[in-house]
Amino acid sequence: MMKMRDVAKYAGVSVATVSRVLKGDSNVKQSTKEKVLKAVKELNYVPNTLARNLSNMQSKKILVVVPKVSNSVFSSVFHGIQNVINENGYQVILIETFNRRDSSVPELIKDRTVEGAILLSAMMTEDEFEEKFQGLPVVLATDSLRERVRSTPSVSINNVQAAEKAVHYLANLGHRRIAYFGGRPDALGARERLEGYKKGFQQYGLQIDETLIFEGDWSLKSGYELAKQLMSQKKLPTAIFAVSDNMAIGAIRALSEQGVRIPEDISIVGFDNIAVSEYVTPALTTIEQPSVQIGEKAAEMLLKILSHQPLEQMHVEINSNLIIRNSCKRNNEILRKGG
């Protein structure tokens, strides 16, 4: 059976281009469109969309693809999805990928086991996305694909704005040397939060010290290791902004082992507002990512698509909130100097 990648190879174009032609995208050049349609005809390719339209059967099942259910952010998003999906008479099929590319997604789609999908994260290129999910209604609740598959509906927070909030809060407390514990630069969310960190500095007219910008992987261990690296510097910062609560909590552990007091010596702001952040010592000040709300909105959008209702917005951004607890303190020395 011919696949979309076979058409792409025959026509000498990408899988994404084939998908756009079959969807009737007017932005595709006429010459490219003709090449693709010729390949479709000569290979006798039948798109999954057409095959699916031959059947009026409704499975009432929704596929949710998640990297790791044990991750508290993903589990909260999934909880929000379930709330809405179950209330509307649908069932959820959950696939946990553990960030691997291989899964049983294609079989579920080919067999029309599911009517639509919500992706919480996905390690795939645009071509891989188009080939796996061709013809299937999809909503993204993930930063990783939002950048690459712009024509697909998505739900997220404004990462830039959220990071700015954290920097503004610390700057208003008198902090000027603020370290940044970030995620991998291949992740859009990590890049956006770094952008917000830098924008926050610029808005206060502060100098960015590149030696205080660290790259991690969102985990407890990563925050712990980055804090140990930080301790090797001659001049320590007065505050840390970590792009995940796990990293912030790992940093608190490492700093406490070195005799650094939180928040008396160094203030810390995290990101996510996971359940445990309220119960660590000191309770963590953090940017709340409304994960349940993200899941609910993604499910509502998918159900609208399935019932052929128009979406008010293709890309929805949900506001984040700063949750102030006990891990930050005024930097009185700077405030006295008026800096």
From TrEMBL:
InterPro entries according to UniProt: Cro/C1-type_HTH, HTH_LacI, LacI/GalR-like_sensor, Lambda_DNA-bd_dom_sf, Peripla_BP_I
Boundaries of every HTH lacI-type domain copy: 2-56
Domain HTH cro/C1-type stretches: 2-46
Keyword terms of this UniProt record: DNA-binding, Transcription, Transcription regulation
Classification via CDD domains: HTH_LacI, PBP1_LacI-like
Keyword Iron: no
Record PROSITE patterns: HTH_CROC1, HTH_LACI_1, HTH_LACI_2
Residue intervals passing through the bilayer: none
Keyword Metal-binding: no
Entry's Gene Ontology molecular function annotations: DNA-binding transcription factor activity; transcription cis-regulatory region binding
The protein's name in its UniProt record: Uncharacterized protein
